[in-house]
Design brief:
The chain is α/β, with parallel strands linked by helices. The protein has 14 helices and ten strands. The protein has a three-stranded antiparallel beta sheet with strand order 3-10-4. Strands 7-6-8 form a three-stranded parallel beta sheet.
């Protein structure tokens, strides 16, 4: 009888242990984050790399990546509760809250590593030489253009939109427009800066981070931020930020370029000339955030005040920053 009792205890102990392990595994599997990505955005690189390096499994994170054609479609998905996190610019998250979306910027995604680009033989050597020039930006409310206007207006006594001409153009068209003499200067998205300078036909006059420095602001200010839906479980958001930190570190440390080859192979980024991809990678790495704290959030408030003073709230998109739009509460 004693032997049977011992056997029964052992069997039930094994069953209990098995159930506990199953419960833990199930708990990990249900720690799901739905990630909204734009079709041409670099956010897909990082989400892909989380799986490439196995960081999602390491943290027990089930990532459901959903790709949307436009920024507006991603916002609709947030409103509908289809996604938990996405990436937008720092003004975008304030605008979304103003439209009633319960979202916050929970972590910086990318610093201001765009720049002012000219042909290598251009007579433009400094920002002072931009007076009277024709400048193309991705849009007239592009943050890099607004920061440039704030700097030249306050320190060089001219506004390139008033003392010259500014126009909107697709970043993929800017090289051709300069070749044809239709524009003198381009302010494309950061990765197009790298693509253009990587050919050797163009050069970077000044990076936006240097403009921020001349304005007396932190060069760590993020242009892009990770936006989280407030209805998402806090553990999910914190774990996602941890995964983001671990993944970007692994991408930087990838000495055999495996992840970067995988990004191209999976057509997460396409280039007419793949030889310039190292330039794109270097610029991406330069834009990685190093800190996220209240001082940085206060810096964004100061930046918006300066941009509104120069360009007006209608162009900037907001009159001021809602401090509740940014939080450090989900840091690991």
């Amino acid at each position: 009888m004693m032997r049977k009792t011992v056997q029964t205890v052992v069997v039930w102990g094994a069953i209990a242990a098995s159930l506990l392990l199953t419960s833990q595994a199930f708990s990990q599997e249900t720690l799901t984050v739905r990630v909204g990505m734009q079709a041409v955005g670099t956010f897909s690189w990082v989400v892909h790399a989380m799986e490439y390096f196995g960081i999602d499994d390491e943290l027990g994170l089930n990532i459901e990546g959903i790709t949307y054609a436009t920024k507006q479609a991603t916002e609709i998905a947030l409103r509908a509760g289809e996604v938990d996190v996405t990436v937008d610019d720092f003004v975008g998250v304030v605008l979304m809250r103003g439209r009633g979306l319960p979202v916050q910027a929970i972590y910086p995604y990318g610093k201001a590593v765009g720049g002012v680009v000219v042909p290598v033989d251009s007579d433009v050597q400094t920002l002072e030489d931009l007076r009277g020039k024709t400048i193309a930006a991705a849009s007239l409310d592009d943050k890099s253009l607004l920061i440039l206007r704030a700097l030249t207006s306050t320190q060089y006594d001219f506004d390139p939109q008033v003392d010259g001409e500014t126009l909107a153009a697709g970043p993929w068209l800017m090289a051709g427009l300069m070749d044809n003499g239709e524009i003198d200067v381009a302010i494309p998205y950061w990765h197009y800066v790298a693509r253009m300078t990587g050919t050797g036909r163009f050069r970077d006059v000044m990076m936006v981070t240097d403009m921020l420095d001349q304005l007396g602001l932190s060069t760590d200010l993020p242009i892009l931020v990770v936006v989280g839906h407030e209805a998402t479980d806090s553990e999910v958001l914190t774990t996602f930020i941890e995964a983001l930190q671990m993944t970007t570190a692994a991408m930087v440390a990838d000495s055999d370029d495996g992840i970067w080859a995988s990004i191209l192979e999976n057509e997460l980024y396409t280039l007419p000339d793949p030889s310039v991809f190292p330039e794109v990678r270097a610029r991406w790495e330069a834009g990685l955030p190093e800190v996220w704290d209240q001082e940085l959030i206060d810096g964004l408030v100061d930046l918006v005040e300066g941009l509104v003073e120069v360009a007006g709230a209608e162009i900037v998109g907001i009159e001021r920053i809602d401090p509740e739009a940014f939080t450090t509460a989900y840091l690991p």
